[in-house]
Amino acid sequence: MKLYRKILAGIMALSIMSTFMVGCNNTDEDSSVGDSSASASTTDNSSDDDDSTDSTDSDDSDDSDEQDNKTPSQPDNLDYTDEITEGVVMTVGGYDIDVEEYRYYFLNLKYSLSGGDDSYWDGEATEGTDSDGNTVSQTVEESKMERLSALKDYVITFLVNNYCVELIAKDNDISLTADEIQAVEDDYEETKASYESDESAEYDTFEDYLTSIYCTKELYLKSITRQALEEKVVRSLYEEDFRENLLPEYVHCQHILFSTTGLTAETEAIPDDATDEEIEEINASNDALLEEAKADVKAKAEEVLQQIKDGADFEEMIAEYNEDPGETVEEDGSVVGYYFRSGTMVEAFEDAAFSLGDNEVSDLVETDYGYHIIKRIPITDDDEYVNTYIISLIMNDINTGETTEYYDQYMELADTYYDNMVVTFSDDYYNINTVSMPVESSVFAYIESSTDDDVE
Fold it and tell me: If you ran DSSP here, which 8-state letter would residue 366 be given?
C-alpha cells in the first residue's frame, strides 16, 4: 500500500515533472517518475478566447500585471470559515482551475509543509536578531499569514507549471491521438485492477484510495493525460535531432564477466612471531596462490570465448556464466545489456566496446573487475530499449544522470511560458485558508453514494 501511495501521490503532485526531470525552474520540488499514457482532449477546459491562452504574447497583459496575478496583493482571509466546495477559484493561461483540482494540491502541500501537524497553521510569535544585529519579531497573526501565503504560492507554482505543458502543446499544434487517449484510459484501468488485486491494499477500491489522497478519477486521468502530452511534446520537439546527432554517440553491448574480485585461496596465515623474511616469503606464496586462482578464471573465460567463436549463442552463455549482477537475463532469455557514451565505463572495457563492429565479439578484455567477453549490438530504428526509454535518453545521459542540451532547451522554453503565464483569481480564492478548504468534498460524497456505473 505504501508503494501505491508513494507512486500515485508522486504522479499527481509532480505531474509536470516525469522521470526525465522536465519542468520549470520556478519550483523547488524534486522531479518524479511516472509512467504515462494518454487521455481526453487537453484543451477541453481552455478558454474560448484564443488570446487569453497565448501565454507568450506580451501584448495580452502588462508584465507587472502578470506578476501581480501570480502573487495576489489582496490579503488572504484568515477568519473565513465557510467551506468552499465548488466553482472556479483561479484561471491559469485561460484554463479554469476548479475547487477539486486546487484542493488536491492545496491539501497535499499543506500536509507536506506541516508534516501533518495542523497546529503549524495556527502560527507562533517569534523574536530574534537579523544579520545586522537588529531585533526582529513576528506576531502570531503575521506568522499565520506568512505560512498560509507560502502554501498558496506553492500551489500556484505547481498549477502554473502544469499548464505550461498545455500551452506549449497548443502553440506547437501537438495533441493526443485517439489511440493515445485510449492508452491513458487503459492505463487507468490497469492501475485500478492492479491495486484492487493487491491483498495488502489499504482500501477496497482504487477510487477509495484516490479519495484518501484528495484525488478523483477525473483528476487522476487529467494528470496522466498531461504527462502523456508532455512526453509527446518532448518527442515532437527534440526526438529527430536526438536520433540524428546524439544517439550515434551511444554504443550498445552485452558482455560476460568472469569476476576476479574477492578471489580466495587456501593462503597461509602469518604467525605473530614471524620474521620479516618469513613474512615476505608467506606473502609471495599467497600472491602466487591468488594468481593461480586468477589464471583458473582466465582459463574458464578463454574456454567460453572459444565456444562462442565456434557458434555458441551469446545470450545463452551470459545466462550460464556471467557474474555481473547488473546485467540481468529476462524471462524470455533476452539480455538488454548496456547503453553508454564515451567516458562512462572503465577505460579498457569502453575502448574495446567502441572498437567493435556491429555483432562483433571481442577477445578477452581485462579490467579490475575481471575478464570480459564483449559483444556489440547494433542500435536500430526499432531498438526496443531506445523506444521505451526515449524520453530519458533525450533528456538525460542515462549513465551519468547529467542533463542534455535538449533538457536545457525545454527548460528554457518552459521558463518562458511560466514567466509570461497570465493567472487570474476569483473572489473565492481570497477566502481559501486551512479551514475553508474542506478535507471531504461533494465529489467524494457522490462517489461513495453512487454505483460503479454511475461513476463511470
Answer: E
Cα torsion at 359, 364, 366, 371 (round to 10°)?
A: 90
CA distances from 319 to 259, 331, 369, 374 (A): 15, 11, 18, 14
d(CA 272, CA 55): 79
| Biggest CA-to-CA distance, the chain | 93
Question: What is the per-residue pLDDT across 164-217, written as a single tens digit (0 to 9) for each?
Answer: 999 999 999 999 999 999 999 999 999 999 999 999 999 999 999 999 999 999
- HSE at residue 163, side-chain half, CA atoms within 13 A, is 29
What is the rounded distance in angstroms from the CA atom of residue 118 to the CA atom of residue 222? 29
Tell me how far CA of residue 126 lies from CA of 129, 148, 171, 300, in angstroms: 10, 17, 48, 72
- Taking a C-beta distance cutoff of 8 angstroms, is the pair 27, 411 a contact? no
CA torsion, ordered 387, 389, 394, 396, to nearest 10 deg: -160
Each residue of 20-38: b (16+ CB within 10 Å) or e? Answer: bbbbbeebebebbebebbb
d(CA 232, CA 236): 6
- pTM as predicted: 0.73
